[in-house]
Amino acid sequence: MEPRPGPEAAALCLGWLVLLLLWISAPSCSFSSPASPPPSPVPRVRTSYNLGRTFLGLDKCNACIGTSICKKFFKEEIRFDNTLASHHGLPPGDLPSYSANYSDDSKTWRPVEIFRLASKYQNEISDRRICASVSAPKTCSIERVLRKTGRFQKWLQAKRLTPDLVQGLPSPLLRCPSQRLLDRVVRRYAEVADAGSIFMDHFTDRDKLRLLYTLAVNAHPILLQIFPGAEGWPLPKYLGSCGRFLVSTSTRPLQEFYGAPPDQAADLAYQLLGVLESLRSNDLNYFFYFTHVDAGMFGIFNNGHLFIRDASALGVIDKQEGSQAATRAGEDKDIFSCLVSGCQAQLPSCNMVPEKQSLVLVCQQLLPRLLQGKFPSPVQEEIDNALAQCGKGASPDPEVLGAATRLKDILRLLRTCDPRFAYRYPDCKYNDKF
Question: For residue range 183-198, what is the model confidence (pLDDT) as tens digits?
């Protein structure tokens, strides 16, 4: 007679039997753990990541703008193509900007623009210049060279961004810096966590190098951050940066509208004069001026609203606090003073920028292309006369400003209230202001 199994053995057998029955009754169940991530195209994303590092300039960080939007690229929630098909290749590498699509949920997409901080050619020249500054070969560690410079060593020790730290940088933004303006740069710098303080205690060494590099090469992304469109400034929204590219909301450049019908041309010209007016006079008491203009610097959103598309040539003078440039002993020139071509251009003295500066440039170079030959006489003659007086650089400020006001009054009457101008429709039906 065989011995009967003990209670422990019986319980073990019963447990195995229950597991067997559960398996038989649910054959479609997966044995993978519920906590394990679902299968995802990791190899494809990883491949896109590897392909894009050099294209985006991530291999040169921290001599770059930042990395705040890189995840969007790697998750393919930013796509260069217009068809929204999965992105396997890369666009041409020599364009200054790219149209793209942006998504937060991979279902709804909106157009964005991806801008280079500098052209591919300028970046190559800049990187070689940095290596040559320490007698290094054509290729070297860009970041290591910049970290050893005297300017960056001062930045490492600084608790606050002061005018002496940006002295000699070529950007018009920093030609006439006030402490109030520089505090605004630090407080609103979007590529660091815990922004909001005027002190740089929360900046890592990497953050300081990225900010310095951006200010030295092209201050456009900084202007988008410190004067955001959400607060009424005529600038597109800054969405983030990755390597040497920045992403902002999409606009169509002004030159695409040179052949626009008369009412649309009048509307865009009226808006452009209004933008320049807001740059001269605003609640924060900053005076903005352009060092030069072209039609690509202004863009139009899908709703017809005109904005500054490229702020790289925008200088800022603090009318409230004044410039602290006069207290400086002289220009502090170093490798950061000329990282891109064209940096040798002489910018006007802080006390020599007239109020009419931007108006003269726009009335000479942009508005004639937009307005001439569009309207019947005698309206066209009135427009042409006002344009001619507005574009006279030798005229005193009051005459140029007066001509711009007359031109704006003429254009306001030529605008129509139409759904094509969604940014002011249907408000224009009930308010003459629009």
Answer: 999 999 999 987 789 9
Q: Which two tokens stand for residue 20?
A: 């067997």
Asked if 115 and 246 touch (Cβ cutoff 8 Å), the reply is yes
CA pair distance 356, 391, nearest whole angstrom: 9
| pLDDT value of residue 51 | 47
Q: How far apart are the first and last CA of the chain?
A: 104
Cis ω on the peptide bond leading into residue 303 (within 30° of 0)?
no
Tell me the per-residue pLDDT of 230-274, one tens digit each, with 9 for 90 and over: 999 999 999 999 999 999 999 999 999 999 999 999 999 999 999
Instruction: Tell me the mean pLDDT in the region 303-330.
Output: 82
How deeply is 3 buried, as exposed, middle or buried, from its count of CB atoms within 10 A (0-12, 13-18, 19+)? exposed
pTM, full prediction? 0.84
Q: Are 401 and 355 in contact (CB under 8 A)?
A: yes
The number of beta carbons lying within 10 Å of the beta carbon of residue 113 is 21
Non-local (6+) Cβ contacts of 412 within 8 A are 270
Q: Which of 255, 266, 263, 264 is nearest to 407 (CA)?
A: 266
Q: What is the pLDDT of residues 43-83, one digit of tens each?
A: 333 444 444 788 899 999 999 999 999 999 988 899 876 55
* 231 phi, psi to nearest 5 deg: -100, 10
Distance CA 227, CA 286 (A): 11
Strand stretches in 69-217, DSSP E: 78-79, 97-103, 109-116
| Lowest-confidence segment of 92-106, 111-125, 147-161 by average pLDDT | 92-106
Maximum alpha-carbon separation in the chain = 124
pLDDT of amino acid 82: 55
Tell me which H or E stretch contains 238: strand 238-242
Decide if 268 contacts 300 (C-beta within 8 A): yes
Dihedral angle sign, alpha carbons of residues 306, 310, 313, 316:
positive
Determine phi and psi for 110, rounding to 5 degrees: -135, 150
Taking the C-alpha atoms of residue 191 and residue 202, their distance in angstroms, rounded to an integer, is 12
Quick check: helix, strand or coil at residue 105? coil
Full DSSP string of 38-76:
PP--HHHHHHHHHHHHHHHTGGGTTSSSB-TTHHHHHTT
